[in-house]
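Task 17 of the worksheet. Students: predict the tertiary structure of the chain below and write it out as structure tokens. Keep your answer in the requested format; marks are given for formatting as well as content.
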Amino acid sequence: QLAKDLLNPSFDFERRQHKKKRLVQSPNSYFMDVKCPGCYKITTVFSHAQTVVLCVGCSTVLCQPTGGKARLTEGVYLLKDCKTYPGCLGCAFESEVTTNHNI
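Model answer:
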């Protein structure tokens, strides 16, 4: 008998695995809908954006690139649960300011 169940790994174990070494391969990136705090327009932003994303209505900076994931600006709202996107493993926030992603 094995100490670990290889066919049914725990959620935390799968989340910590490399994207190609999971039981079912899935990307770490995802798309998210964000709402501008100034004009309330909705923009779709890639989680690992490599350029500054501006609002199409008022040219407010919505997110800035870092080494990996893009950092959302203070006051920017996420409209959807990230769980709806296939690559996200367990993010659950619909509130202001998102700097702590659970990916």
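Marker's comment: Residues 92-103 have pLDDT under 50 and may be disordered. The longest strand covers residues 31-35.
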